[in-house]
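Regression check, arginine case 460:
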Amino acid sequence: MPHLWSGRFDEEPDPSVFSYGVSLGFDRQLFEEDVTGSLAWAEAIARAGAISEADAAAIAAGLAAILEAGRRDPAFVNGPDEDIHAFVERQLVERIGDAGKRLHTGRSRNEQVSLDLRLYLKTHIAQLMARVGRLVAALAHQAGICGGAVLPSYTHLRRAQPILAAHFFLAHAAAFRRDYDRFVRAMDEADAMPLGSGAIAGTTYAVDTRALADRLGFSRVVANSLDASSDRDFVATFLYACSLTMVHLSRLAEDVIIFTSEEFGFFELPDRFATGSSLMPQKKNPDPMELARGKSGRVVGRLVGWLTTMKGLPSGYNRDLQEDKEAVFEAEATLAASLDATAPVVAGLRLHADRAALAASGVLLATDVADYLVARNVPFREAHAIVGAMVRFLVSAGRDFSSLSLEEWQRFSDRFGPDVIGAITPAASVAAKRTPQSTNPDAVAAALAEVVLWLTQAGK
Ligand code: ARG
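Current build output:
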């Protein structure tokens, strides 16, 4: 088979070394984008007077037929070609002859591949954002049904202070909303049209790049042809957005794994999301959450791998850049599948409110006792020491604040009055919080309402 560059060489490419560079096996995923870009390019060079209107019309018809063939049978997009660009061009020339040979006038695969990937990301980032939105909706659903139920919160994985269970779900929702915004920015970075850059120095034909950008749905044109030929920052930004979303999924998964364990038991994992053991009959394992946690490694690996590939490249296109596509496709597929598996698991969690409330009681109310003393004019540092001594006593006696008589309270400080009895509870603890970002029930209700509003905007 003649190659795109056959005129230059005396020898045919070595088959096995040539196959090392073949990317059609994966860049065939850019088939639609490649055809779309070529259609727009043919129109643009016809308008610039570089090819005739008749040739442009023949190219358009040929490309439409190729697109149709590929849509009808995905197996059509296959062959001995080096990449998707060579595949489409060969198909076109086979169909329409000489006119097809004029399509590549003033254009390079270097800008074509950048265009295709940018087009691909613009569509596919939107799909990932919709998936992130569905996970946020599942978290908001849980926050909505938890009511006033409480959980212990943890620092250092040691019980810290009571929080509303809704606050826990909304905490994860906050992280995924940042991911959503990060994808908006990743999409914006991909949203620059590179055609007109030529192989590296620009193109000789008076192509209206602004019109081409409009035609292809880009908001702007790249600023510099040399930069454009090697710029894959938008890939790194995308992989970072995917990686951080996977990290958030991993952390959510870890919470679900812990909180549904026998030891914590705050939530029940529905059987339909659990896996049993081939040997141990009692087991109910949270495999989907473990997989979401585990697969974060692949996506972070793709980011690190891609940054390593970009580092040290000289200016201009280098073939190393071909590594971008598998990184994008794998990160995207892994994240999409992980989001889709996590959302129903989250939505299906059932709260064991009694068990969670019990764990949110006891000495983790110590800060509230200290605040009681502060309200009675004890300096906080002193209050901390007084309550620290109380905790030491209670822990060694296997008791907690709720078991203390007034006389016992007052043994630690004469500022304790009868109103302390029954006042130190998880519900009082959360109600006492005052800031908008706190676990105060009114603040949590407002935060949930804000998330629900966000979800309804733009139909997330
Ligand atoms: N398959 C190539 C890639 O993915 C397309 C660009 C090829 N350009 C070149 N000069 N060999 O980057």
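Comparison notes: The mean pLDDT is 97. The pocket of arginine is lined by residues 23, 27, 83, 109-110, 113, 317, 319, 321-322 (CB under 6 Å). No diff flagged against the previous build.
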